[in-house]
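4.2 Preliminary Data

To establish feasibility before requesting continued support, the project team ran the inverse folding procedure on a target of 457 residues. The structure was first converted into the token representation described in Section 3, and no sequence information of any kind was made available to the design step. The complete token record follows.
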């Protein structure tokens, strides 16, 4: 089958210029992985990754995804299936892509997948009956190949778990949930040298250095109130150290990668696995620079040392607030004190690793004193990079349920309202954005600072 997979562009009203620039540039792992799976089954697949394009050019150039889709559809000729990957903030771009697809490939089947689809499920189909033919809820690794069989008439939709579709009578049907991939499958089935990466060889941070981004675990065992990851992935599952190292070996040998960004939600969560991966990397002496994300309550000095000696360059932590009470409200960092946070930050810096922090302003209940506590903590630990976000509500998170109870938002708002993001408190949004912008700028890392300076020249 001829398949086009499209990743919608980055949302435009995310907040501040600095926030945009702070994004790491990395190809969309999920869609490229799906493309590799489909190609292995003999399908012809083209990927448009508009998010990556925006990221790698520091948002200086953007692909209009709908226009891009139209052009690629013309080049591809007959297309059987168009798959669109959607997050909640990119849902309006996804609609534009679907409209372009309907117009220029009227016979193609349009399938939507990704986090936003798993949030709204059948509501999304009911809201856009003319645009989407099928929705894939949850992981697409097994569902999408089966769905192509459905489209080819080789399989019945009702017998395909994990989809939403319209029956012949026009009613909306949802099949049984697709079980998530077990760890064994994560090791086996996702052992696809991601051939798509060939086209991304020099993506990293807009530079020319061969690099790789990997997600070596799915799910997060924690429960931060603003975060959709735990619900999206259900349970935490990780690939074995051997599996992780074999993929790195592959990309080192074939593409000479020199940077590696672990996009796992909490890279150090499984301490034994993490130490084994780091020991393997250290012994290989590839000299690959590592970037990873984690939390203050699942890291210790030994892991920090191991990370540094395996090539660790940057570690990013979700600090979110300098006020212990706010962190507690956010379900963040399991009671870790400011003293402990300070000690971890010092250990990271002492090991020669760049310290990156994620901070959130405008969370419900945050006072001016809380903001001052955050600024003081930042001042005392002197991070190398800070990325600030306003408190945005994403559907089906605990924060959303709070907002829903307070009658701020309903799930259907993500169908009817056009803004990309929903600030928890719309009245303070501009002030919060300004604060985010100032703090990100104050601690801007070299890459962000260069982008800002280039833009201002
Ligand atoms: C890496 C990452 C980023 C990178 C993206 C780099 C890149 N080019 O991919 C950066 C830092 C730029 C980023 C930015 C943002 N992100 Co982000 N990000 C992630 C993260 C940590 C990993 C994504 C990933 O690769 N996952 C692994 C792959 C395998 O999963 P996947 O892409 O979802 O694909 C699977 C399924 O969803 C499905 N699928 C996906 N697409 C499709 C398409 C079809 C047709 C089908 C059938 C199936 C399918 O099948 C895939 C395989 O199973 C996730 C959290 C997470 N753990 O997933 C958040 C996450 C996706 N981001 C999120 C958000 C909110 C954002 C931002 C809005 C943050 C902000 N405030 O600015 C921006 C907006 C970006 C955007 N375009 O939407 C949310 C989305 C929530 C929602 N309701 O939509 C998530 C889930 C985080 C969270 N904890 O809530 N992000
Ligand atoms: S630790 Fe990170 S990924 Fe996990 S629930 Fe909290 S914010 Fe989400």
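Position-by-position output of the design step:
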């Amino acid at each position: 089958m001829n398949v086009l997979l499209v990743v919608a562009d980055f949302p435009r009203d995310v907040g501040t210029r600095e926030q945009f620039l702070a994004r790491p540039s990395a190809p969309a792992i999920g869609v490229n992985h799906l493309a590799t799976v489909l190609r292995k089954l003999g399908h012809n697949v083209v990927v448009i990754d508009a998010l990556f394009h925006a990221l790698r050019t520091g948002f200086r150039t953007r692909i209009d995804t709908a226009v891009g889709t139209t052009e690629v559809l013309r080049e591809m000729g007959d297309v059987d299936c168009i798959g669109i990957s959607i997050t909640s903030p990119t849902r309006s771009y996804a609609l534009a892509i679907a409209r372009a697809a309907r117009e220029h490939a009227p016979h193609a089947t349009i399938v939507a997948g990704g986090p936003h689809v798993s949030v709204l499920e059948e509501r999304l189909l009911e809201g856009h009956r003319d645009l989407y033919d099928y929705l894939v809820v949850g992981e697409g690794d097994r569902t999408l190949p089966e769905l192509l069989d459905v489209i080819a008439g080789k399989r019945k939709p009702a017998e395909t778990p994990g989809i939403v579709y319209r029956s012949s009578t026009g009613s909306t049907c949802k099949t049984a949930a697709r079980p998530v991939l077990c760890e064994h499958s994560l090791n086996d089935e996702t052992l696809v040298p991601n051939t798509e990466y060939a086209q991304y060889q020099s993506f990293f941070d807009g530079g020319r250095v061969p690099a790789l981004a990997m997600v070596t675990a799915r799910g997060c065992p924690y429960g931060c109130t603003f975060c959709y990851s735990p619900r999206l992935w259900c349970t935490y599952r990780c690939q074995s150290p051997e599996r992780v190292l074999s993929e790195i070996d592959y990309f080192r040998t074939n593409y000479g990668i020199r940077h590696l960004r672990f996009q796992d939600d909490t890279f150090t969560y499984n301490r034994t696995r993490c130490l084994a991966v780091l020991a393997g990397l250290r012994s290989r002496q590839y000299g690959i620079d590592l970037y990873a994300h984690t939390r203050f309550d699942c890291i210790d000095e030994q892991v920090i040392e191991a990370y540094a000696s395996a090539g660790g360059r940057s570690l990013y932590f979700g600090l979110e607030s300098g006020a212990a009470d706010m962190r507690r409200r956010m379900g963040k960092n399991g009671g870790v004190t400011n003293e402990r946070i300070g000690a971890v930050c010092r250990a990271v810096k002492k090991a020669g690793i760049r310290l990156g922090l994620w901070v959130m302003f405008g969370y419900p209940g945050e006072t001016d004193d809380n903001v001052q506590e955050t600024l003081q903590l930042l001042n005392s630990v002197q991070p190398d990079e800070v990325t600030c976000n306003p408190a945005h509500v994403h559907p089906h998170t605990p924060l959303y349920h709070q907002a829903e109870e307070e009658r701020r938002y309903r799930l259907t708002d993500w169908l009817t309202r056009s803004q990309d993001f929903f600030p928890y408190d719309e009245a303070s949004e501009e002030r919060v954005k300004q604060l985010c912008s100032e703090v990100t700028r104050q601690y801007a890392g070299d890459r962000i600072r260069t982008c800002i300076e280039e833009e201002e020249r």
